[in-house]
Amino acid sequence: MMYWRCFMGVLNREMLKFWQQRSRLLSALVRPLLWLFVFAAGFRSALGLSMIPPYETYILYEEYIVPGLAAMIVLFNSMQSSLSMVYDREMGSMKVLLMSPVPRSFLLCSKLVANTLVSAIQVYLFFCFALLIDVQLPLMGYVYALPIIALLSIFLGSLGLLLANSIKQLENFAGVMNFVIFPMFFLSSALYPLWKMQEASEWLYQVCAFNPFTSGVELLRFGLYEKLAAKELVIVLVLTLITFTFAVRSFRPKPAASFSINSAGNKGAGNKETGNKGIGNKGIGNKGIGNKSDGKKQRIKANQQGRP
Fold this sequence. Notes:
Number of strands: 0
Largest sheet: none
Helix content: over 70%
Number of domains: 2
Structural class: mainly alpha
Shape: globular
Number of helices: 12
Mean pLDDT: 77
């Protein structure tokens, strides 16, 4: 019961943030729709048609890039969710979650699941827009794509959390994310087939084939056409376990509360000592004034005795 309440709390928080930040949904859909409606029309004549697995016939370029653009939505949303974790850590709201008695691994897993739900909503909205340009995928492919989207979101979210745990400032995280997102996206099979990369450059093809995001894109592409890419599935599963394990191990925020208490205690002790010192000086000063008065009285008495 305690775990369920904690999970629902994290889920409701993420969904509330997503509902209030409607510009986030708009920005998440603008990028893939721009590629789908504008760039695809221009690249159609440049790339021509392609027939590669899982396709059984020649397809247009618009149909080819739909799985890659859906994976791009998951990539950007996962990294943005990691960015919000850095923001929560700096603003102090992360301490509220850490006060929960549940393990930190469960908290991180709950955040990843909530991020998966947000990514799935955005991806299926994108699929609805793709129908406007007559990109029709198999009906059961939309169902098979759901667990693949969840797995890909957990993998990319774990990678983002791993980077967020090693970056201490919000400004640095934005630069690192750009350094990670764009190479992962453009050096993959999301926009171009790998055989096109191989025709252009052999080393570029090897980099794209080694990119783990390529495995995620191909796994989603095969799933949308009711097929299973076993090799890519194993790769994504292994990388998900590795990144999630390291993300949990590296999630060790410093307990700022104890530092504040110790600092306040030392400061109070210092004030107390300063106050005692001041009282002592005051006492010394009064004592000195008293000695001065006694000496003056003795001189007056001596002068009176010396008079005839």
